[in-house]
Design a protein that fits this description.
- The structure is a single chain.
- It is built from 2 helices and 2 strands; from the N terminus they run ααββ.
- The protein has 72 residues and is of the alpha+beta class.
- The protein has one domain.
- A hairpin with a 2-residue loop joins strand 1 and strand 2.
């Protein structure tokens, strides 16, 4: 796993978040449209959280630090 590039992985999550944010709505209506919108919001949140993380390696574990509140 020595060739694993954490910065590149985080960049991919950033790119995915942007794609989800810009994704057009498919031609669906009603409850299916709402499900699509809700899933897109969840996908964006997940991808954006990882994209905004800071990382370190601790005891042979990749640790992603994600700030959940406002910094003081």
């Amino acid at each position: 796993m020595a060739d694993f590039d954490v910065d590149a992985m985080i960049k991919r999550f950033h790119d995915r978040a942007e794609v989800v944010k810009e994704r057009p709505l498919p031609p669906v209506a009603g409850t299916e449209r709402q499900k699509f919108i809700e899933q897109a919001q969840l996908d964006y949140t997940d991808f954006a959280l990882v994209a905004g993380s800071h990382w370190s390696v601790e005891d042979d574990h990749l640790v992603l630090r994600i700030q959940l509140g406002a910094s003081d």
